[in-house]
Amino acid sequence: MTVGRYTTDLDKGDVLGPVEYTMSKFVVREYCHANELHQACYQGADPKFAPPTLVHLDKLKLYKVACPMGTGPTARIHYEYDATLHAPIPVGVPLRVSGTVTDRFEKRGRSHVLTTIELRTAADNQPLVTYRDTVIVSYRAAAEKAAS
Fold it and tell me: DSSP letters of 72-112?
């Protein structure tokens, strides 16, 4: 478990969460405004669903709880993601997000961390989104420079 460490310390098998929260109308509107999602279903006074990409914020919730010391000695770079939407993400309903680090590997001198994140309803455990995320957490050159 990575509690008390940096996100750069995440390793294969680490479990993140679960974290429970309720998606608010305010968060949906602000996120959509910032990301230029101007559809009325997101920007109206009473949005019913969140856009699937809002799951990016769930990853940050998990990081904040599991790795409260922050990003670590090098910045984290969001490299690649893939999300499968199983059902619309409802506003005003308690949700539960959890994640597992499924792999950590080095490629071209960079450490990559793959995490699978699941967003479900808290009450009946209905799957909403499965999110596969790859981040680069360190560079060999940066680590060598820090060590010298």
Answer: -SS--EEEEEEEEESS-EETTSEEEEEEEEEEEEEETTEEE
Distance between CA 85 and CA 97 in Å, rounded?
14
The residue to which tokens 């949005």 are assigned:
47
List phi, psi (to 5°) of 140: -60, -45
- Using an 8 Å Cβ cutoff, are 127 and 87 in contact? yes
Q: What residue type is assigned to position 123 of the chain? A: A
Check residue 17 and give its pLDDT: 92
**Structural domains in the chain?**
7-147 (3.10.129.10)
Q: Quick one: tokens of 34? A: 């910032």
Question: Tell me: the pLDDT tens digits for 82-133?
Answer: 999 999 999 999 999 999 999 999 988 888 999 999 999 999 999 999 999 9
